[in-house]
């Protein structure tokens, strides 16, 4: 028998080994199952070393290089794909460092220097490059007095202060720096610009030149004071001619750039012609003639008098869209010449040079006015070559020709792209150019000084200092590269030596090393730490079976070398395989395999008639015992699994099977816990929740739930529970008798029948009593469910009184809304109330009728008397709360032709059908609308809801429809209406901006009103304008203007852009 048994075991083991041989590339889960397949035929007490080796996968074949695409985590002998590929074979020394060649940061010979983009400062960089290439401007800036730079000690860093100093230093670096690109953050910071926000490039150009002109005007050198005017300033005048008398008046003006409208035009000539064309002044726009002394029809045009050497032409690509309330970009193709003759447009100066040559084109790449990228194409004045300046990148164009390239291919989406028109020779065509810079054409001269600008000695000294720092940095980077290469070569030799020793041979000593540590050891980008095996220990201090997949079996020789060089521990060798964990897992897996068969058997046994001694089990436990058993086995299995490196085997874990059974049988955790009494030890007294089963059934269940409470057939129920149950029954009987007695004495109050009202004082009595509605509600709850609710003992009338003991409501306020807080009682009902309950303070209202000759009068008084001081304070606080709010909701309702949409439009689809029907009916008018305590909106719904009035007595005056049904006080959002969150201290202008985003109506097209009163003061706060929470503001929108030019003018007048507000460009 022993021989046969051993033969069977050996066959099973051989089958497992064969399975492993076929599963070298198997997924991790399949390897997991294969490692424990032997438990089907081996009991926990029969486990030997062969089974432990199978569980720890000691005998799995090692993977060979080339057979695995990635490391086999389920195989502790697989040492392929852990990062060794980067070290085996010859390695390029550049792989040992991640430091770029510092010479790549060096400026190439005969090239220009770029500018770093600090986030969204490409628009600044383009203009700086254009101004740098203006030789006259650069030469003049170099001549500016700069004592700080001249006296600077080169041992410290130079920090410019003024705009001129920053620009001087920046231009000197652009001219003679050794760097490929320089950082303009000093100038940007001095201007106070937000580096993360893209601004209007055209506006930046205007403001910067204005700031520079103001700065240069303070120079002592008179030649520098007007350099901006000499370079960029021209003159024109607005000439107006009266159609009646022919009188002509001229208003002279200077310009630094011509702003040309491009909408509807194809070439630059058309744009300039429209800029100078005659305009008619008629209708409301008529001109007041000094000769006629009255308004007359007239014509107006712009007359060009002189042009600057550098002519800046702004193409107005960014216009304001009235429909959206935002600016948009016009992607219109505009043709412009390389040589521009301005002679036909100039008047009165026949001898002035009027022929200009194109020197720069500024491009905006992108379809939106609020995003995109700016680049500049600039012509070198010395060589005539064209360059593209794109922040740090600079590209020289071939053949000394302007080549706009792909900048014209990404302007719009595919749907809106139009075909690029053909351009004649000497012309260029662009849909992204927003500024053209022309320089007056000069005769060719051999004078080199005209195109040669020397950097002054004091600035060159600063440039040399920066170049020296750059060379030191290059040398430092080169040294770091060399150190990294030397370190990498040493690591390469170490890995080649040790990796060959890693595989553990069969029958030889071995140890386990964490897989993640091996990967980091082979990853040169991270520092190698000491070996840490503490996370792999089971509760017995040995290697956990589950952690085999996260560790690798290596030879003792390799492990010895690794621990000598990197230290660590605890060391895990062949003696660290845990027999206890393997045995426990074996028991759990066998029970899981047996569970289905036992479930069927138990189901059949329970149906049989009980004979002999039985055991109590919970019916809920019996219904779900299979799931509970599975949960228990999962928990037991988890105890044998690793839990986040805690050596005691305990810790948080997730159990999928428990998640699946969540909510079953009231989240039962333990078998039979449903029949354990609340005291935790005895049998429950609820016989309907338990069932008797045979000893055979209990034995099978006990195998799965060894810790479950056991109750034999003769077990006595909990005596404490029996006593408490009897006491509860006695108390319920008393409560029922009490509720029945109170109900019979106050039957009308309970059923809300024959209730007194204040609007029509009842005959036969001159006094009514008042109690809080809360008291009546709680009392009714007790009467309806005396066994579930607590009896009411106290009336609590002090809730309706002020701290001085005075009443808080008047007769008028009660009939106008405050009655929702109280209930009225007849005198006989009050006698019953006083007898049955504790009354802290009686409250009554009295009616006095008088019949003088002038006619009958009625007066009402309360006892206690009204406290006027507290009443006024209460009303004042209510009004204050309505004026000092934050994060409140108001509703903006758009109206058409002075008619509210609410009258014609149905409620939104999310309203119920009953609410929709209510919207169709006429809103009732409630008396007392002007009472300060009663806030009512135009749709008749109460806005200030102080309490739930659904169960109010007849004293309450509900808002009703003609049919007598109470109208809902909840605001119904209608089609065409939107809710906004506002605060009382918010201005009307800020509200209009919110409305613009919600309705796409520009602020200057918004006509707002509340309760028929127009809201016009944009600087006023909403609280001062009477806008309270839940208010409805009506919005009537003006028709938008189709003329984009007119829209832009209005926008600039009514809503100035604040992009550069607070920056140095505006003097801040």
TrEMBL record:
CDD domains: Peptidase_C19L (cd02668), Ubl_USP48 (cd01795). It catalyses: Thiol-dependent hydrolysis of ester, thioester, amide, peptide and isopeptide bonds formed by the C-terminal Gly of ubiquitin (a 76-residue protein attached to proteins as an intracellular targeting signal). One of its GO terms (biological process) is protein deubiquitination. InterPro entries: DUSP-like_sf, Papain-like_cys_pep_sf, Pep_USP48, Pept_C19_DUSP, Peptidase_C19, Peptidase_C19_UCH, Ubiquitin-like_dom, Ubiquitin-like_domsf. Its EC number is 3.4.19.12. Residues 113-441 form the USP domain. Residues 921-946 have a biased composition (Basic and acidic residues). Gene3D superfamilies: Cysteine proteinases (3.90.70.10), Phosphatidylinositol 3-kinase Catalytic Subunit, Chain A, domain 1 (3.10.20.90). GO terms for molecular function: cysteine-type deubiquitinase activity; cysteine-type endopeptidase activity. It is found in: Cytoplasm; Nucleus. Residues 982-1033 form the Ubiquitin-like domain. Belongs to the peptidase C19 family. This is Ubiquitin carboxyl-terminal hydrolase 48. It comes from Sparus aurata. The lineage of its organism: Eukaryota, Metazoa, Chordata, Craniata, Vertebrata. The gene is USP48.
